[in-house]
Amino acid sequence: MEKRPRLFIVIPCYNEQEVLPITAPMFREELRRLTEAEKIAEDSRVLFVNDGSRDETWRIIRELSEKDPHFQGLCLSRNRGHQNALLCGLMEAREKCDITISIDCDGQDDIRAMDQMVAEYLSGAEIVYGVRSSRQTDTFFKRFTAQSFYKLLNWMGADTVYNHADYRLVSARVLKEFANFREVNIFLRGMFPLVGFKSTSVYYERNERLAGKSHYPLKKMLALAFDGITSLSVKPIRIITSLGVFISLISFLLILYALIAWMAGRAVAGWASTLIAVALLGGIQLISLGVIGEYVGKIFLETKQRPRYIVSEKTEEMA
């Protein structure tokens, strides 16, 4: 009989005391179903990563692990953000499992899609992306901005899967290679396609959050979007260069026009044209410095080589 893969479901958690008691049994039930269907090994686990929560999230995770060994937990020393918390869980699990499935704790991603993900892995795929077939539960603004973001990323040259967030199956073989990616500024949904290996997608309907409130307000969404663009593409700098060349050409033509007008005796002193030119060039220069500064700042952080996360506590089996 062929050996069944050991699965770790990796779930980053930040202030999820309201939704965790609801979704934890759902993740456990999915493990049971997959085990009974003989798709995964009986010693598969649900791994929660507490991202420095300020509520009772870590206490709930510890209690779950004490009652059922299928639940395991890691606690970060401080809040490091969703991407670093997820990375921590994947890196800690890669030596203990054959496959991982990462998913958020809020219940919005369809847990039953894991069945098809595992089936795709058993058919030979090393990475299986969970893709939202629709976003009807999102507000118009969130749906519009999210879809625009994916299109912008692809236009910028980043290799991302449209409408895919961080719900994905990744094999231990892929994680072994992914561990060689050492950058501090990470955007996982754009980095995994860079590893290669055979991949496919599974489509599912997105649900509403089961409890609690979203921890990704507009400010955080914009920060994640900007991090994704600047971490995966240098096209913004190239756009600035092209814009500089274009404005320089226009300026050169205006200088020629001014000289010809002066020599013809038709020059008229005007403050409006001067003010417009100064304001336009000043604004473009400040924006350009800001974008370039963002890249310089990322270089600064990369050279420090600080750890991306620090684990302060582990439940018994993970220790």
Report what the structure shows.
With 319 residues, the chain is α/β, with parallel strands linked by helices. It has 10 helices and 8 strands. It has helices at 20-36, 57-67, 82-93, 113-122, 140-155, 172-178, 188-195, 218-232, 235-263, 271-304, and strands spanning 7-13, 45-50, 71-76, 99-102, 127-134, 164-171, 199-205, 311-314. The chain has an 8-stranded mixed beta sheet, sandwiched between helices.
Provide the fold topology.
Layout: E1 7-13, H1 20-36, E2 45-50, H2 57-67, E3 71-76, H3 82-93, E4 99-102, H4 113-122, E5 127-134, H5 140-155, E6 164-171, H6 172-178, H7 188-195, E7 199-205, H8 218-232, H9 235-263, H10 271-304, E8 311-314
Parallel strand pairs: 1-2, 1-4, 2-3, 5-7
Antiparallel strand pairs: 3-8, 4-6, 5-6
